[in-house]
Structure formats: C-alpha cells, structure tokens
C-alpha cells in the first residue's frame, strides 16, 4: 500500500503542476483552490500516507488501509469535480463536493484509526518479543 500511495501521489503532483502552469499561462486563477487541494490532499497527503505505510508495512496490509486508499482516491477527484463546478457557478457541484469531501474525511479517519491500532499492536508485540 505504501508504494501504491506514492505512485498515486506522483500522479496528483503532475496534475497539480500542470494545473498551476496552465493557470499561469492563461492568467486565469479561478481554479486556485482546486490547485491547492490537489497538491495538499493529493500530492502531499498521499505521499505522507505512502511513507508512513512504508515505515509500518504491517499497517499497510489491513482492510482499513485498503478502504482508506479507495475512499481517498475516489473521494478526492469527486470533491475536485464539485469544486470546479462551484467555482464556475454550477450550484449542483455543492452536493458533489460534499460527497467527495465526506469520503476523504472518512478515509482519513480510517487511516488515523489504523495507525493508532497498528502502532499500539507493534509496541505490544515488541514488548512480548523482549520478554521471551
């Protein structure tokens, strides 16, 4: 899961860079919030998730990690589509943005739960190993 998150992070990074460059070339910065969200939630967050899952590979093998991956990477594009619609005055984009945002939030909460559970389990296992 660590490598998968790092690969998708690189995709989000490319999208963010291309969007930023395009906005600069055409001098239209209405999609600045989309650019920021793609870079922070897509590139940076996914890279951090990937690095953490690489450091704690046992956490990456859980159903929580897989569910987190899919919620994050389905929710974020849905959220971005809604945000683009809202930016251009299409009011139907708001519920789309909300659904995508909720998926990202739930995925993030699953990540947090997974990390706390797995790190605590890891400490207990290490303590048991030391006592043997």
Automatic annotation (TrEMBL):
What stretches pass through the bilayer? 40-58, 70-90, 96-116
Species for this entry: Neobacillus bataviensis LMG 21833
Q: What is the name listed in the Swiss-Prot or TrEMBL entry for this protein?
A: Cytochrome-c oxidase
Establish whether keyword Nucleotide-binding is in the entry: no
Q: Which UniProt key words apply to this protein? A: Membrane, Transmembrane, Transmembrane helix
Tell me the first and last residues of the signal peptide: none
Against InterPro entries, the record matches this protein to: Cyt_c_oxase-like_su1_sf
Q: Which SUPFAM superfamilies match?
A: Cytochrome c oxidase subunit I-like
């Amino acid at each position: 899961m660590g490598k998968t998150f790092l690969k998708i992070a690189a995709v989000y990074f490319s999208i963010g860079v291309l969007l930023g460059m395009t906005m600069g070339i055409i001098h239209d910065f209405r999609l600045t919030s989309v650019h920021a969200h793609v870079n922070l939630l897509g590139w940076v967050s996914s890279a951090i998730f990937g690095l953490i899952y690489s450091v704690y590979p046992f956490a990456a093998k859980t159903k929580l990690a897989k569910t987190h991956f899919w919620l994050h990477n389905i929710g974020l594009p849905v959220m971005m589509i809604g945000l683009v619609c809202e930016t251009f005055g299409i009011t139907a984009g708001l519920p789309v943005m909300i659904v995508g945002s909720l998926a990202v939030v739930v995925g993030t909460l699953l990540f947090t739960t997974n990390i706390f559970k797995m790190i605590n389990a890891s400490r207990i296992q290490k303590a048991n190993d030391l006592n043997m």
